[in-house]
Amino acid sequence: MEQLVDAGDIGAGHSVTALYEIVPTGKQGWLNESRYQTAPNVSGSLKEYGFIKLRYKKTNTPNSVLIEQAIAVGSKPLAQASRDMQWAVAVAAYGQQLQSGQYNGKVGWAEIADLAKRNMKPDEFGLRSEFLDLVRKAQKLGSEQAK
Questions:
Q1: Contact of 94 with 102, CB cutoff 8 Å
Q2: Does an H or E element contain 94, and which?
Q3: More confident site: 13 or 39
Q4: What Cα–Cα distance (Å) separates residue 80 from each residue in 51, 77, 83?
């Protein structure tokens, strides 16, 4: 079986973190309704939000390995997520806020700074502190532009 690249390659020794907003059927999300597909009807007892299929290759091997994982309805709310996951959300929200923040909902600079600050932990190179400084500088610049 030929295994082509679909969504992109991640080189050996590298990693990627993907964050998704899950919008249940019948609820309003951030994006407009799909142009080519109608939303399915809500019926029965939902046990999964979705299903992820991911392929990866071990270094110097021709065939990929498939990982399949359901996204369970019982997933944790952000407040119960690990510190690293909450940190990743703060970083993603920072990136969104730099791009006008239209998908951040009620989350602004102060909330991003607070989330990052609450999830600080020692890091050898001071990158988390540097990130928090960037958030505070962006917050200050944003408030100066609003004047």
A1: no
A2: helix 83-98
A3: 13
A4: 22, 6, 9
Tell me the C-alpha to C-alpha distance, in Å, between residue 105 and each of 28, 94, 96, 102, 115. Answer: 12, 13, 10, 7, 15
Q: Among positive and negative, which fits the CA dihedral 59, 54, 35, 101?
A: negative
Q: Is this model's pTM higher than 0.70 or not? A: no
Helices 83-98 and 127-145 meet at what angle, rounded to 10?
A: 30
Residue located via tokens 């369970």:
72
What are the beta bridge partners of residue 71? 50
| CA pair distance 113, 46, nearest whole angstrom | 35
Q: Is 60 exceeded by the pLDDT of residue 1?
A: no
Q: What is the pLDDT of residues 18-32, one digit of tens each?
A: 777 777 666 766 666
* Per-residue pLDDT tens digits for 63-99: 888 999 888 887 778 888 889 999 999 999 999 999 9
Write the single-letter amino acid at 139: Q
The rounded distance, in Å, linking the Cα atoms of 91 and 103 is 14
